[in-house]
Amino acid sequence: MWKVSPYDDRYLVSDNGCVKGPSGRYLKHVVHKDGYHYVWLGKGNRHAVHRLVLETFEGPCPDGMEACHGDGDRGNNGIENLRWDTRPNNSADKAGHGTQQRGAAVSTSKVTGDVVSSFEKLPRTCQCGCQSELTGRQLKYATENCKKVGNRNAWLLKTYGITQKEYDLILEFQGGVCPLCKRAPRAGEIFHVDHEHRVGQGGPVRGIICAYDNTRIIGRLKSFERAQAMADYLRDPPATRALGREQWADGRPKKKRTYKRRKRK
User: Fold this and answer.
1) Tens-of-pLDDT digits for all 265 residues of the chain?
2) How many domains does the chain have?
3) Would you say residue 121 lies in a domain?
4) How far is residue 20 from each of residues 37, 52, 58, 179, 181, measured CA to CA in Å?
5) Which of 33, 92, 178, 206 gives the lowest tally of CB atoms within 10 Å of its CB?
6) pTM for this structure?
């Protein structure tokens, strides 16, 4: 059975999913990567075949409805295999037919099948130090302590390109102390990752130092040349060389702080 398309009366649509153009020739179905068939009713006027058949023989799509395939075959666009139904019922059909796309099968997926299969093998129980293995929705199986460790590891990897194990390795290589002030971290204190700002904010990691040395000393010097100039200046002051002696300075005396009384109106 053929009927006129509701979009253009020059095109005919059959109840088995075929479409004829103005010249009487059958239009070629273009199969998208999601499996649905499409036809063009003129330039830039693309239509899904299953929706076109339903709109031609059953009328416009009711509110809250969508086109459903009875057998789950997206290439079977006969009217007897199509119906308007709700999204929950359509999803239930997909689950029953085994055609519901998940993971790498989704057309907009950004991961491969190997990555998805590796996610499925992850453990679903949390132990101390297992945070690196728990990802995505499985984080709910992690303890609060492991979540903190995981967030810290993710931050180090994203910002500095090192893991928590590599951070600990660098700190251990330094003897567990800041290489500048030779101080070990206090309880609950986390030393900073120092890196060179060679190109903008990016550059090679140099070491693990305390917050004061990172922000107040190295953070203000910013370059090896200035740090070397500062070291030479402190080791051999130019004033001593110019005067030929070491001149002692008492410094500016502290001013006595005075308080002004407010006048009462």
Assistant:
1) 888 888 888 899 998 889 998 888 888 898 888 888 999 888 888 889 999 999 989 888 888 899 888 888 888 888 888 889 898 888 888 778 777 776 666 666 665 656 555 555 544 445 444 544 555 555 555 566 666 777 788 888 888 999 888 999 999 999 999 998 999 999 889 999 998 888 888 889 999 999 998 888 887 777 788 888 888 888 898 888 898 888 888 777 777 777 777 777 6
2) 2
3) no
4) 15, 12, 19, 80, 83
5) 33
6) 0.42
Contact 194, 160 (CB under 8 A): no
| Helical packing angle, 144-159 and 164-173, nearest 10° | 80
CA distance 74 to 52: 13
DSSP 162-178: --HHHHHHHHHHTTSS-
43 inside domain: yes
Distance of alpha carbon 84 from alpha carbon 97, whole angstroms: 17
